């Protein structure tokens, strides 16, 4: 069976998008996703994203496999790409600029703006240790500026769940972090039973953060949307940044707001179509 796909990226965080609207079961297995994501022997991507029929009254469902075949609950850059993909699939029959998307991390609402950027209502951040999940503190407590031993060093970490789990550390200079060495040690640390995405943040100004990320199931990526949202929330919780800030990633900037009105997090950034193909 031939399967059509479209390659998209959000700030260099790249995905293979598949039209899966006629079935609730992804047409590609996690093992096949690993091969498709391979940058030498496959198409090359950080993950495979499926546009499935909506559940619980939503317009569509998004599922995603990481490049290691694991299934995360949410993907920020991916959901912007999905919005662009759905708009393309709907073509002239499209009658709205925003979608309610069911994900394993909750309902997300991407809106395609007149300038082509996509603004996503990412919902409420979850902060309790049991919601991250982490065993760093008791289940009902927040993990804000807690010490964590990783690779013989004590790191000051804050944990935020944006649909998926994140552990954020503020540092003087993100360039000095040996991400490929330390990233896997955070990801597989026993205090994170579902593994973790790890962000290192340098505060340039209260409204400008620089970020590098080691993603669970994908390693170093050029950008992570949920990670940028989680990092801004961590910055507010630790008094380091404002509620609205630009987060600069290796692939480019995202605009993030943790609304003081409705406490929801909003992310705005690009979604770029690269090419289409057939498997
Ligand atoms: N790059 C994504 C996050 C993808 C999922 C992540 N690797 C996980 O396992 O949670 C983003 O833009 O949010």
From TrEMBL:
Presence of the UniProt keyword Cytoplasm in the record: yes
Enzyme class label: isomerase
Keywords: Amino-acid biosynthesis, Cytoplasm, Isomerase, Lysine biosynthesis
GO MF: diaminopimelate epimerase activity
GO cellular component: cytosol
EC number: 5.1.1.7
Pathway: Amino-acid biosynthesis; L-lysine biosynthesis via DAP pathway; DL-2,6-diaminopimelate from LL-2,6-diaminopimelate: step 1/1
Biological process terms in GO annotation: lysine biosynthetic process via diaminopimelate
Record localization: Cytoplasm
Active site: 75, 224
Residue positions binding substrate: 13, 66, 76-77, 164, 197, 215-216, 225-226
Pfam families: DAP_epimerase
Site (Could be important to modulate the pK values of the two catalytic cysteine residues) location in chain: 166, 215
Catalytic activity: (2S,6S)-2,6-diaminopimelate = meso-2,6-diaminopimelate
Coiled-coil blocks: none
HAMAP family in the record: DAP_epimerase (MF_00197)
NCBIfam families (UniProt xref): DapF
Function: Catalyzes the stereoinversion of LL-2,6-diaminopimelate (L,L-DAP) to meso-diaminopimelate (meso-DAP), a precursor of L-lysine and an essential component of the bacterial peptidoglycan.
UniProt similarity note: Belongs to the diaminopimelate epimerase family.
Quaternary structure and partners: Homodimer.
Name of the protein this chain belongs to: Diaminopimelate epimerase
Gene (UniProt): dapF
